[in-house]
Amino acid sequence: MPREEVIVVGAGLTGLSAAWYLHQRGIPALLLEAEGEVGGNVRSRAEGGFLRDLGPNSLMVKGELLPDMIRRLGLEDRVVEANPLARRRFVLNRKRRPVALGPGVLLSSSLLSLSARLRLLSEPWRAARPASHDDESIADFVRRRLGPEALAWLVDPFVSGVFAGDPEKLSVSAALPRLASMEAESGSLLRAALRNRRTGKKGTGSRLVSFRSGLQELPMALAGALPPDRLQRSRAVIGIQHSEEGWRLQTTGGELECRHLVLALPASEIARLLRPLAAELADELDSIFYPAVATIALGFPREAVAHPLDGFGLLIPRRLGIETLGVLFSSTLFPERAPEGMVLLTAFLGGAQQDISQRSPAELEAQALRDLRPILGIRGDPSYHRCALWPRAIPQYALGHGERIARIHELCRRLPNLDLLGNWQGGVALGDCVAQANAFQKAFMEARTATGQNEAP
């Protein structure tokens, strides 16, 4: 049986990036993907003049890592920049009217009461939380620093819209580490923000982008950059076990052996494969919760939507009792997402605060329409509608997540020549996935050098 040096299981963005980085260093890793399509939840579809992303909808490019990857993949002329209007974000207020976020929130009562605005302005004089080993939820952190109204009308809709999560259950240090570090370093979020603005740290060099054919162009380009025999689609891994020289994999295409195994999969899938070998490690991985999320694409004639759609989109606070988490103004955000004279909206339902796993696509589409008609002034039925239901969407960095990840890493060390990757650790954004893959390949190459192996097999 031929033995591979490295096998990577899972051709989502993390696994693809890990395999690609290894190939850039002369390591011909073999990448296995259970499905016939690469990209994981990064999927794009073009139909009838509409272009929709079924999962993530945009990519934040900052630093050097992603620009370098895009350049080396030859995608520079495929990048599309977000509309400058994307800087404007809306949130629904008590009267169920969209309010643009920004400095005006502190000057107007349209979203926050006078007492809440004064509470925000007093934030620099609030005592920092004493250093402790106890984790703190996002909700407790925001209530302590910014007050309950800021939590309800600003932070809760952000958390439910971006993480599909519950701020009462998510760890601030794991899900929003920058907030925790701002308090630790400056004693105040406002002081830290002002300091970053003065020093030019905030958003330096950052761009919100997509690609001409949608976000899936990035994983498809990574797949295309691998030698044809180094990516095997529709080859699922059924089980794994130790072999004398590393790992043996039982797959739908027969057995494989490798010296080093990389599992770049959702936490529950890694748990399934590892349970016969390491039950405690599998239990830790299985405890990471993934709620179901649906993305609903809705296309209308421009004149059928009263709202000017002059921004990134709209977030909806949970306390309003509206099921839809939020809506992106997709045809405003990026060009050529809808035919001439049409607009494309992308609504989101589900998440940690509501279970939609048993609801049909038709029910979810109908719910999104009921919720959005009065908010955006929609008339008539959509000319185009599609629903994508993700049973396991975004991993939740719940209270104790940091300690759980530390335990996972410690338990994983007992299994030699094994690495576990995925957005259940290190950040859920696409850029975080690429950064994690790059960090893996650096550590792999350093370990390889330390053991006296050549760079290429």
Strand-helix topology:
Layout: E1 3-9, H1 13-24, E2 30-32, E3 44-47, E4 50-53, E5 59-61, H2 65-72, E6 79-81, E7 89-92, E8 98-100, H3 114-121, H4 138-145, H5 148-162, H6 172-175, H7 177-186, H8 189-199, E9 207-211, H9 217-224, E10 231-232, E11 237-243, E12 246-251, E13 254-264, H10 267-274, H11 279-286, E14 293-301, E15 313-315, E16 326-328, H12 330-333, E17 342-350, H13 361-376, E18 384-390, H14 401-412, E19 418-421, H15 430-450
Parallel strand pairs: 1-2, 1-13, 2-10, 7-15, 13-19
Antiparallel strand pairs: 3-4, 5-9, 6-9, 7-8, 11-12, 12-13, 14-17, 14-18, 15-16, 16-17
Mean pLDDT: 93
Low-confidence stretches: none
Largest sheet: 7 strands, mixed
User: Count of DSSP helices?
Assistant: 15
The total count of strands amounts to: 19
Class based on secondary structure composition and strand pairing: alpha/beta
User: Oligomerization state of this entry?
Assistant: single chain
Strand content: 15-25%
Termini, distance in Å?
A: 18 Å
Query: Helix proportion of residues, in percent?
Result: 25-40%
The gross shape turns out to be globular
User: What value does the Rg take, in angstroms?
Assistant: 23 Å
Describe this protein with a few key phrases.
457 residues; 7-stranded mixed sheet; 15 helices; 33% helix
